[in-house]
Every structure is written in C-alpha cells, then in structure tokens.
Amino acid sequence: MSRIKTFNLPDLGEGLTEGEILAWLVKVGDDIELNQPIVEVETAKAAVEIPAKWAGRVQAIFHPEGTTVEVGSPIIAIDTDPNAGPIEQSTTGAPAADLPTPSAASLAAVEVAPEEGMVEPGLIGGVAPGGRTAVLVGYGPRNAPAKRRPRKGGVPAQAATAPAAPVQPAPAPAPVVPAPALNGNGRPAGGPVLAKPPVRKLAKDLGVDLATLTGSGPLGSITREDVQQAAAAPAAAEPLTVAATATAAASFGADREQRIPVKGVRKLTAENMSRSAFTAPHVTEFLTVDMTRAMKALDRLRERREWRDVRVSPLLLVAKAVLLAVKRHPMVNSTWAGDEIVVKDYVNLGIAAATERGLIVPNIKDAGRLSLRGLADAMTDLVQTAKAGKTSPADMSGGTLTITNVGVFGVDTGTPILPPGESAILAFGAVRELPWVHKGKVKPRLVTTLGLSFDHRIIDGELGSKFLRDIGDFLADPEAALLAWT
Fold it and tell me: Which of 148, 208, 399, 421 has its CA at a distance of 20 to 30 angstroms from the CA of residue 375?
C-alpha cells in the first residue's frame, strides 16, 4: 500500500462543484497532524478550513492560492510515513529526487483552461479531468489518456483522437457555409447542446430551451450567463438597443473600467436571485408601524440584571414577532414543491448579513422553540460568526423564512427577493422619529416601515396581509400581543 496519499477537494456541502483556494496553511516539507487545518477554501457559500485526513509530511501542493478547483480534483499529496526512508516513486510517478517539488505528471492533474477548439472539462459529451467522459450525472469510467476533440473545421486532424461516440459527424464543407442553418457555435441547429449539468438545471428552472441559444463558452457551450440573458431577453430587448447606442457614442477606454470576476458568494447570490425572481411570483406589501412602546420595552429589558450582558436590538423583537405570527399562520412557513406544498412545523429563521465577501443568509435552526434570551444569544452568535467569515455551509442551508434588516443602512424599507425554497421574506426598515397621530394629537413617535414579499402561489393576499398585520401589532404593543397570543 502506497505511503503517499493524494487528498482531493471534498464536497463541502449541498452538491457544491468547485471552490477557490484562498490560502494554504501548510507548505511542502511541513509535518502535519491528523485533522490539522491545511487549506482555506472559499465555496459559493462560505470560507472553510479543510483538515488533513492523514498525519505525515506534505510532499506536493498541486494548486496555488487563488486557483478555482473542481470538487474531486487532487490538491495536496501527503507522505503518511515520512520516517520510513526515501521514496522510490510517488503515486504520481515522480522519482524521489524530484520531491517535494511536484512532478510533471502531478502537474498534469491540475485542471487548466481549455484551449481554442477544445471541449471544456465537465461538459456533457466532453472529456473530463483525468480522461473520463462527462455524462449527465457524474463521470463515466476512467479511460487511457485521450486528446480532446477539435472544433470542426478549425483544428488539425491529429488532435481529433477522442472517442467517437459523443462527437457529432463532421459536416461537409458546403453545408457549413450558410450561416442561417447553423447555431452560433458552428454546429447544426438541431445538433447536441454542450452545457454543464448546473447550467441545464438552471435552464430547466427558468424555462429556457437550450437548443435555441447561441453559446458563448468554449466550442459554443452554453453558460449560465447565456441562460440568464435568454430568460430576461423579452423585457430587456428594447433597453439594450438604447444602451448599445449610448455606449457606442461614449466609447471610453478599458483603463477606466474595472472587471470583477463573478465567483463565490456573489455568484451564488446571482444564481439564487435570478432563479427565484423568474420562478416564484412575488407580491410585496408594506406596513408602517409605531414602535414607540416596543422601544421602551427594550429599554426596560436592558435594565434587568440578567439581560445587562446581552445584545438587545429592535431586530430581536422583529424576529420574535415573526416567530409568533408564523404560529398563527403556519402556511407562511412553507415551500412550493410542484405537485404539493410542504408546510413546515419548524422555523429555520434566516438573518441576512452583509459581509466583506457579500450578502449571506445564515439561519437559526428551529428558532421557534427558543426563548427570547435564547433567540438573542443565537442572533448574536450568528452575526459575529458571519462578520468573521466563519459561517459554515450547514448554517446557510435549510432556511425556511428570512428577515433582512435594511434599516441598518438608513433605508426605510425595500422589496426583497425570496431566497429559493422559501415563501416569505420580511424587510425591516430604519426606526425614525416622525410626526404621528397618537391619541388624537400629532406627536413625535418612533416609526418603522415593514415590507413583506411572498410567493403568491402559496400565500394569497388575505394570508399575507394578516401575517404582516400580526407582526405590526406585536411591534406596536409587544406586551399586549404576548398576553393575547400566548
């Protein structure tokens, strides 16, 4: 049994397909222990430190910092018995004299960007890393080293030695000439479509026919951006013409533009918001509430001995109001599942948090069972962990209902977009001192505006209005609401 173990990037949660190496916590030649953190990886959901599966000595690091690596690709080699003497040959075929420097064979395992005319790794029908053929789910059996198939008419014949099964027949030169008969990627309009499984799923969710699209990826493959643009095309067609004219007139140089790669949290947020906006029919209602009594109740709570070391904010009362309102209207805490609606008897309460990495929505599991003190402690831990960039993928999975506190930015309210799989999200605006009619007289009162977006497939106007009204009633007079409802 070989003493050199190759550690592959694991799936860090919910079927993630790739991660970016933020920082290596070890270097070649370091002795490491079992479960010692060796690398920090950023996925679409969180930055996670990955522990070592074996104790030993680092022999090779296959990807530098800043590299995006597919799940299952080797990232590090570890000598599990460094005191056993010199290594005659590594698992990658490198002679011992070359270690700890990665060998050419080791570096060959590193995924590189596809060259012009080659099929991008992971595309359906294309060659995947390691010489396997990508299929709809996972990969086929590993083959002998194979060359990628060429683009028709653009690459020398000696490069086209890939297995013939997924390769479409090369058309005669004459039919290739007429542009109307071809897709933008150079294939017949009715031919097979190249797209990765996540792109196919996104197209299905948005109701986009991949066969009608012109791919912008390698060899005309369909990308997420192609699908999202196609879904938004009807509404954006006319503005695009005007924008193109204005851009042509301005024509500024590239030195006055900044291009930011879309990855990690930003990429996941974009995908989720696009999918939600185009699949769930949103309705948003607003309610302005006098929170003067609630703010006074918070002041009295802070004065109590057992609460002096607890962070107490208006958001705590909003969260409590939402949880109590869910008990009175359980259908709000549900998910649309196609042929059925899944009503959940637990509330995983999401709290949207703005971090340096972007917007994330960790959630408090089974928040409805917590006392007010337990809810306060859970919210404090959640926010501190998020701002420190240590939120785990598990903490951001499984949310059932979300609150976004736009008031911290001085905003009165908003029309929030539903997180995928949820049926309601509440926007909590800034609490301001405003003139308000109280007991027949205009007086300065502490007022906020709530905005509730909900999935109209599940929640009709009456239910959404009653749910929002109950939240407002609690914030207007929390003591009376607690006496009446509990």
Answer: 421
